[in-house]
Structure formats: structure tokens, C-alpha cells
Amino acid sequence: MTNPPIPDALDTYTLNMGPQHPSTHGVLRMRLTLRGEEIVVAEPVIGYSHRAHEKMAENRTYAQFLPNTSRQDYLSGVIYNFAWVEAVEKMAGITVPERALVARVILAEFNRIASHLLWIGAFLLDLGAATPFLYAWDDREAILFLLESVTGSRLTYCTGRFGGLSKDLDADFPRRAREVIAKLKGRWGEFARLIEENVIFVNRTKGIGVMSRDVCLSYGVTGPTLRGSGVAYDVRKAEPYGAYPRFEFDVVTRAEGDVFARYMVRALEMRQSVRIIEQALEQLPDGPILNPDSIGVRKRLKLPVGTQYYAVESARGHYGILIVSEGGAEPYRAKFRTPSYPNLAVLSEVMPGHMVADAVAVLGSVDLVMPEVDR
Amino acid sequence: MSAPAELARAVEQLGATVPAPFEHPFAGAVEVRWIAPGRLPDACRAARDAGYFFESLTCVDRLAGQGAFELIYTFNRFESSASSRVAWRVWSPAGESVPTVSTVYGAADWNEREVWELYGVRFAGHPNLTWLLLPEGTEWRPLLKSFTAPPASIYDDSQSVVPDDQPAHS
User: Fold this and answer.
1) For chain B, how are helix, strand and coil distributed in percent, rounded to 5?
2) Is the Cβ of B85 closer than 8 Å to some Cβ of chain A?
3) pLDDT, tens digit, 9 for 90 and up, residues B69-80
4) Nearest residue of B to residue A374 by CA position?
């Protein structure tokens, strides 16, 4: 909206970044209007991976929609899967056993770390640093292996069930989880030396892509991108859900609002996730993993008439689900408020004024997952 | 910064609220109000001034029974320690346009484009009401309940005309 009008067609030219560009991480097109090397107008063009998840939801029962959830944000699959399950549980009034509540937190936080690790690797690769990618991938692999042992999947998790989880954590799980945590902790110092003290990285990211609090408020920016602008908004704290209220953790913020701040927030947030997992492993109660009363109703579950808004904190921010039920076995309407959608829309405000080389840094710093934007 | 109850009262004092056109429970928001379509920008301006961010816009097709669309705008605060979501619901009879709030919230720009392309609801005053997710020029409204499927020929390569001298697949 505050984009300056294009002054003269002879003075500027248009550069299409994408839809097949290595740094757009999925099919996104940035239509950049440039004057020399300077960005005058930046317009994201989306929709390349629109699969109409909201329409599909209207034609499936609540249980049949479960596999769709992790295909919206394929890097926060566990979190998205549980969000749908919890939204339906809330409307249907299904209670969840304690063990399942805590297990969900453990799996979701491991998923969050895996997502942040992938981002760190891919983002540094965008900026020309190949080594961190290999380290991050090694750590992420350990987490995927652990999650696979519980859920059976590496990416498109579908382990949530109305009233619990499909599979219990085995007796050996806490030991393996602690092994993974030890591996993660061993890398933190290396990441700090390799990335945060790297003069090329620092010079390319400090003071670049600054977002003010007011711009974030106008666009509804959430997640680490918002917390990099000094706003301590985290759905896990603002609207505590599941077992989160019983665990201690801090909301990481940085005041600067630039690309470097967003990196630091994600790097430090992984440590908070580890902190949550360690407490959860200590407190993991025994008992059933699935509410035995919910097993019979889950296939033809009918929800009472009404509208429900339910939100969770995904690896990218505020993920909201709005379900409108007319009493049937399928949602009358399901809306998915995905965090990358506003986080991408805001770039048309942030990018103008930067050099074209910084476009990659700014675009990478908001951690986009395009299937989640397009749904 | 004001609490949800204060914001709802302020919007009522503006005279922007209307009685509910039908009964439908809404859970997950602290304050829910029905807003007159014409006063929607005022109600959103009040939310913006009170420090709320634009959270979501949802359109619900209620054409079959009630001949109207239901629009649900939700707003939230960054500072809250408890949930402070407010929801403005708008009842928009078929064929009527709703004033845009993209001048109040940047987020409304894309959200309104999405509702327009998927449902056909027009947002008066929107600076760029064009396709966002669907291909440019799409004429159908896929999220309408009356929608079945687009013509198969549009994207199905097997339906395209192949010259006789070229085999379709080798």
C-alpha cells in the first residue's frame, strides 16, 4: 500500500524471481520491479500449490481429513495434525488421557526443532554457506528417525487420533529421546561459532529487512518472525493448550526486527523446545494413550452445531483452525489460518528499498512453506 | 490497548452492531458481535486503534437456506496473557458488496481477494480485487456449495486437441 508508484517504465524493469528459483523453497514467484539493483516494488505471486484443502475438508469426515493436515505445512506436520485433532476434540468434548497430552507436547516440540534446523540449513545455503546445512541435516535426521519410530512417518505425520494418539511411546523412547537431545546440545556451540560469529553472515543479515511492530500488527505477522521484532507473542503462552501450561519455558524475543534477529530467535527457540521436552520426559505419566470411550465414535463423529476457533503455535507462528459445524459428520466449513500467509504478504512492505541481492536474505528469513500459504 | 469487553462496548457505542440474523453459537472468541456491513470499516478501525492485529477472515456460504454469506473477521492482541480474540460477524445478502478494510489492515488485502475468488463476494473499494490462489481468469467459485467441478477440458491435457500426425503419447 505504501509502495511508491512506478515512476517511469523506461527507468525500471521487472524481474521474476521464481516460480522455479532455488531460494523460494517451493513454488513462489516474487515479481520485483527494480531500478538498477534497488527494489522499487515487490509483489509475491502465490497459488502455484493450491490444492483446495478447505474444499476437501467439506467433503470428508473429520477422521478422513486427518491425512490432509500434515500436507499443509509439511515441516510442522505433527503440530498441524494435533491442531486438527484438538480442535475437533474441543468441539466434541472428547477428553484426552494425561499420557497422550504429554506425548503430544514431546512430539510437537521435536517437530518444531526439526523444522527450525531445516530452516537454518536451507537459509544459510541461500546465503552461500554450505557447511551449516550438513550439520543441521545431520541433527534433523536424528529427530526424524526418532519420530519415525513412534509415528511411522518421516514427513507427513498422521499419528493424532480423537482422544489420544494412534501408537504409544515405547518403553525405550525416553532413552532414545535423551540421546537425540544430547546430540542437539553438542551442536549449539558449533552453530554459534560457525554462523553467529561468521562475519559474512552477520554483514548480510544485520540491519536488513527490518519489520516494525506496527507493520506486523497491520499484517498479522506471528511466530519467530514477529518475535524477532521484539513482540513476545506465542500462542503456547497467550492461549495455553494441551499440556503446555505445566512446563516452564521462555518466549525468545529480539528487539532489532532484522534478518539476524529472526535467525537468533529460531536458534534460541530450539533450546526452549529442548527445555520443554526434558521436563515432559520427566513427567511422562503412565496410562492409556487413547481414550477408550472415543474409539467407537471416531469414524462417524458428528459435532454439535456451532463455530469453533482453535489456535496453536506452529514452527512458523499462529496456526488457526475455524470449524463451522451444522451437525453433520463433515465440517460445513473449515478455514485454516496459516502463519506463512501474512508473513509473506508483509514482504511487499518490507522489501522495497533493499538491493536485489538482499531479497534472498529477506525472503528466506520469514521461513516460508508455500503449500501452507496456498493450502 | 483495551480489553475485548471494552472494544466490544466501543463498537456498540459507534452504532455499528446489529441484531443476530440467526442463532449459531460461536466458541473460541471472548467477544462476538454482528456488525452492519456498511459500518465494518469503523468496527475494524476501532480494533486497529485498540492494538488488535488482523487474525483471519472466513466466508461461510449460507445461500441455500438463508440467501446470504456470513463473513467472520477475527482479531487478537499480541500482549494478551489470556485469550483475547474478538470476532466481527457480517451478514452479506447475495449480490451485495461489502466495504473493504484493506485501508485499515494490510492483511485484509489478500484475505479479501481470496474470499472474492472463492465465493464471488465483492469488496467495494479494494485496490486490486484479482485472483490470488486460482489461475487468472478463472470464472468458477470453487468454495460455493453449488459448485461441482470445473469443465474437465480446462487443465486435462488428454482432452486437448492433438494434430493427427503427432501421437498423443509415444
Assistant:
1) 25, 25, 50
2) yes
3) 999 999 998 887
4) B133
Residue B164: partners with Cβ closer than 8 Å, 6 or more residues away: none
Q: Give dist(CA A272, CA A267) in Å, integer.
A: 10
Tell me yes or no: is domain A52-374 CATH 2.30.40.10: no
Asked if B62 and B40 count as a contact pair (C-beta separation under 8 A), the reply is no
The pLDDT mean for chain A works out to 88
- Per DSSP, the three-state class of B56 is strand
Any CB–CB contact under 8 A between A237 and chain B? Answer: yes
pTM of the model: 0.88
The domain made up of B4-159 has a fold known as Beta Polymerase; domain 2 (3.30.460)
Number of CB atoms found within 10 A of residue A264's CB: 21
Which chain A residues are Cβ-neighbours of B81 within 8 angstroms? 237-238
Q: Which three cell numbers stand for residue A289?
A: 494413550
Which cell is A172 given?
525405550
CB contact under 8 A, A307 and B25: yes
- Checking if the pLDDT of B163 tops 50, the result is no
Contact between B107 and A345 using a beta-carbon 8 Å cutoff: yes
Domain ranges within chain B, ordered by starting residue: 4-159
Residue A201, pLDDT > 50, answer yes
Compute, in degrees rounded to 10, the torsion defined by CA atoms B45, B48, B52, B57: 50
pLDDT confidence band for B15 (50 / 70 / 90): confident
List, for residues A242-253, the tens digit of each pLDDT value.
899 999 999 999
- The Cα A174–Cα A176 span in angstroms is 6
Nearest-Cα distance to chain A for B149, in Å, is: 11
CB pair distance less than 8 Å for B106 and A306: no
Measured CA angle at A108 (ends B78, B53), to 5 deg: 15
Q: How far apart are CA A204 and CA A361, in angstroms?
A: 8
All three cell numbers of A341, joined, read 500467509
Domain ranges of chain A: 52-374
Q: CA–CA separation, A321 vs A303, rounded Å?
A: 15
Q: Compute CA distances A202 → A121, A192, A257, A361, whole Å.
A: 16, 12, 14, 11
Helix (H) or strand (E) holding B73: strand B68-77
Place of cell 505433527: A78
Return the C-alpha cell found at A161.
487420533
Burial of B15: CB neighbours in 10 Å, binned 0-12, 13-18, 19+: exposed
Which ipTM score applies to this complex?
0.87
